Amino acid sequence: MSSLKVPASVPDPYEDAEQLKKAFKGWGTNEELIIQILAHRNARQRKLIRDSYAAAYGEDLLKDLDSELTSDFQRVVLLWTLSPAERDAYLVNEATKRLTASNWGIMEIACTRSSDDLFKARQAYHAPYKKSLEEDVAYHTVGDFRKLLVPLITAFRYEGDEVNMTLARKGSKYLHEKISDKAYHDEEIIRIISTRSKAQLSATFNHYHDHHGHEIIKDLEADDDDEYLKLLRAAIECLKPREHFEKVLRLAIKKLGTDEWDLTRVVATRAEVDMERIKEEYHRRNSVTLDRAIAGDTSGDYEKMLLALIGHGDA
Amino acid sequence: MSSLKVPASVPDPYEDAEQLKKAFKGWGTNEELIIQILAHRNARQRKLIRDSYAAAYGEDLLKDLDSELTSDFQRVVLLWTLSPAERDAYLVNEATKRLTASNWGIMEIACTRSSDDLFKARQAYHAPYKKSLEEDVAYHTVGDFRKLLVPLITAFRYEGDEVNMTLARKGSKYLHEKISDKAYHDEEIIRIISTRSKAQLSATFNHYHDHHGHEIIKDLEADDDDEYLKLLRAAIECLKPREHFEKVLRLAIKKLGTDEWDLTRVVATRAEVDMERIKEEYHRRNSVTLDRAIAGDTSGDYEKMLLALIGHGDA
Questions:
Q1: Keyword annotations for this protein (chains A, B) (predicted)?
Q2: pTM of the predicted structure, to 2 decimals
Q3: Is some CB atom of chain A closer than 8 A to the CB atom of B118?
């Protein structure tokens, strides 16, 4: 469930584009107006605003936002204004660059998007980067990380509900053997996790839990300094995206000095997907609402933009 | 260039469906009529005929073809009648089954289809098989074959013409080092071949040829009993699909006892794509036309269907 609040009557996109153009002019930028418009338009509407802006002024709205805004506010507005597929392509590209490298970021997109959405990100990658997404992921990762991340990011998982219980039992038994032997890097583990449908994986992990008395996640907590193992665990945890994103938000806000990078990414990528559920989960787990936690940890236009996206206040 | 001959005036699909229904009735099947209709309709038209057949008779045309026809003729008609994406999905599925297992078949589809067509095959896989295509490929292949085939079949290559010459030089140098060391199974070789765009790969292999005096293919001919090496070579040769398919046809026809499996697959999958070019290449390479070679090696309705698909005679 989306947390986005769109006004009952949305202005014509040319009108929105004109207002944005005005917001950039004169005595400093009018950030309030930018938030008022962009934080309250859905993906289709934002696309129309960008098209109208280009048609009316011969300029790219994203470039103007980039040059008018700064810091965390700039990042959240830019990420948000992109279409979901462009945004995911952008985030993966960023995650493959040396200074912003993040196996975690690649894994998160691979494991929490629907099959179609993940494929759309791969399609959206070609035009701006003149390469394929998996080409950059494979080039910029090494060893076991590559072996795990490339199949995850290139998967087009079956999304039906059918579960093969024989296969679930076999998978669970196999995983347990390998984990007992600490053979975490076994290629069959990667095969199972990167190719099976999410329904099949859930059945497999439930069987694991029922038969071995622990969740598979717990059995993978052997060594908390092993970055590969952390990533593998997270790939499994992402089967429950709501809980995954709650955790990312919790850790981002709890940090000494908020992790704006994580906070921005989760809010910009989930606002239009399942932010209402993530908020419920956050409240349940932390006894404080996400609105209050964000308000306590951020400030200024950045805070206002985040709060608007998570549905605080009116459109 | 397609070899398909479609009549100037194509009957209404309901009329075609009715004729096909008639062809199945009475004193044995009328194979001539089946060829006359199906071998002269393009993918869109065949789809309409299937839809019309289902609407008019409440039956599946493919099932009726399956029960009315036999042997090689049955196989070529069935494969041909499928849409290209369904057909590729079917062929990959078949190639992952124990009795019809074929790493070669998986590689051919992975390496000769456009990025979009390969993805469409993955989409078309979900509904009939209730799994993902890569799930079956990964499950049914082992070791180095899996390491090569899974990235190939899940690739969504960039298809622009841009070439990065620095990268081509680096790639060529790297490939030469590994090949000199007989490290054919090196994961970087697989990464380069499975992720780079075809334009980039051509530039890389041209650089290899220019700098080392041999084509990379020649340097990979070390050991002709090594099935993995053969597959790797073929994956490279598939960059030039016309030459690859000419070779498959040549070997299929030259065999003591034609290889109908290969012959059928190439004709059914390429008739609507580039069969005219493959025919030119075949003629150039074998000093006999493909029509004559096929007529000399096959017979009956199977021969007639193949010849119709490669554009022999009139629509």
A1: Annexin, Calcium, Calcium/phospholipid-binding, Metal-binding, Repeat
A2: 0.94
A3: no
